[in-house]
C-alpha cells in the first residue's frame, strides 16, 4: 500500500468518526422516512359558533355597503358567502374596537362651512309632468321636492336626529333648524325629522328601507366639509341655491339610482310591467301592487313613478 493510499484511508476513518459523533446519518435517515398522513378530524355537520358573544353584537344586523340603497340579497356561491362574512366581520370589529379620539383641529371651520354658504342659483322650474329642472344640470331631474319628501314621510322620521360622526368625532344636532320655515309649518318635527328611532310607519309607504347615516359614513359616502348627513341634506341646500364642488358627485349618485337609466328606477318600472299595471293612479293606490320597498327607496332619492315614465317602459317592451 502506498503512502497516498494509507493517508486516504486514515482521512476516511476520521471523517466517518466525525459523522458518527455528530449523528448526521441518524438525522438523514429520520428525515428520509415518510410519515403517514395525519388522520382527518371528523367535523360536526353543524356550523361552529363562538362560545361567548356580546348581546349587542348578536342582536345587531350587520350592514353590507355599496354605493346604492340596499335590498337584502343572498350570496350566489360559497366563495362569495365567505367573502361577505369576512367583510361583515371587519365592519363589526371596526365598530366595536375603534377608540374615540379628539375632534380634528379644523372642526369649527367645517361647522361654519355648513351654514356660511350663499344662494347663487335660482329655484328650479317644474314642468307639466311634475319634473324639476335645474338650468346648469340638465340631467338632474327629480320630481319630488325636499318639502314634499319630508311631508309625505322619509327616512323613518329620524334623518335629523342627533348624530355622532365618527369621522369628525363630534355630535351634530339641531341642523334641521336651517330648513325654510314654510317646509316645517305643518310638520310634526319630533315625528318626521328628529325621532331618536327609525319608525317605518312614518314613511310614505310604511316600510323600512335604506341604510343609516352612520353606515353611509362608514362606507365613505359623506363629504363632511359640505353635508355631514349625506345626500338628502345636500339636496335641501342645492334646492335653495347653494352650489359646491360636491354637486357633480351627488348628482352622479342620483343618476345611478333613479336617473333615466338608474338601477332602482329600472327595477321599479320592471315590477310594474310584471304586474301588468299600465296606469299610475292617484298617490298610494297602484303602489300596493308592486314593491313598497322600491317605492320608498326611490322616494328617498326624490323620484316617483309618473305616467310618462311608465308609458315609456311599456313602449320599450
UniProtKB/TrEMBL annotation:
Q: Write out the ranges of the annotated region (Disordered).
A: 22-105
Record field: compositional bias (Basic residues): 75-84
Q: What is this protein called?
A: Vegetatible incompatibility protein HET-E-1
Q: Which organism is it from?
A: Aureobasidium pullulans (Black yeast)
Amino acid at each position: 500500500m502506498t503512502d497516498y493510499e494509507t493517508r486516504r484511508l486514515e482521512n476516511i476513518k476520521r471523517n466517518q468518526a466525525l459523522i458518527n459523533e455528530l449523528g448526521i446519518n441518524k438525522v438523514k435517515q429520520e428525515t428520509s422516512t415518510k410519515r403517514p398522513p395525519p388522520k382527518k378530524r371528523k367535523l360536526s355537520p353543524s356550523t361552529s359558533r363562538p362560545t361567548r358573544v356580546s348581546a349587542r353584537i348578536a342582536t345587531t344586523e350587520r350592514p353590507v355597503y355599496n354605493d346604492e340603497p340596499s335590498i337584502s340579497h343572498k350570496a350566489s356561491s360559497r366563495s362569495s358567502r365567505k367573502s361577505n362574512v369576512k367583510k361583515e366581520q371587519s365592519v363589526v370589529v371596526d365598530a366595536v374596537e375603534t377608540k374615540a379620539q379628539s375632534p380634528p383641529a379644523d372642526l369649527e371651520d367645517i361647522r361654519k362651512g355648513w351654514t356660511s354658504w350663499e344662494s347663487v342659483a335660482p329655484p328650479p322650474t317644474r314642468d307639466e309632468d311634475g319634473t324639476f329642472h335645474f338650468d346648469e344640470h340638465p340631467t338632474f331631474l327629480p320630481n319630488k321636492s325636499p318639502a314634499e319628501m319630508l311631508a309625505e314621510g322619509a327616512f323613518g322620521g329620524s334623518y335629523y336626529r342627533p348624530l355622532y360622526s365618527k369621522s369628525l368625532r363630534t355630535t351634530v344636532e339641531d341642523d334641521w333648524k336651517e330648513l325654510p320655515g314654510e317646509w316645517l309649518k305643518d310638520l310634526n318635527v319630533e315625528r318626521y325629522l328628529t325621532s331618536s328611532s327609525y319608525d317605518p310607519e312614518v314613511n310614505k309607504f310604511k316600510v323600512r328601507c335604506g341604510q343609516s347615516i352612520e353606515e353611509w359614513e362608514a362606507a365613505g359616502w359623506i363629504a363632511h366639509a359640505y353635508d355631514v348627513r349625506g345626500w338628502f341634506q345636500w339636496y335641501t341646500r342645492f334646492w335653495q341655491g347653494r352650489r359646491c364642488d360636491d354637486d357633480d358627485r351627488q348628482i352622479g349618485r342620483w343618476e345611478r339610482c333613479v336617473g333615466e337609466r338608474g338601477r332602482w328606477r329600472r327595477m321599479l318600472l320592471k315590477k310594474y310591467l310584471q304586474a301588468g299595471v299600465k296606469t299610475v293612479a292617484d298617490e298610494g293606490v297602484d303602489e300596493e301592487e308592486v314593491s313598497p320597498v322600491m317605492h320608498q327607496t326611490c322616494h328617498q332619492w326624490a323620484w316617483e313613478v309618473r305616467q310618462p315614465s311608465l308609458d315609456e317602459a311599456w313602449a320599450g317592451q
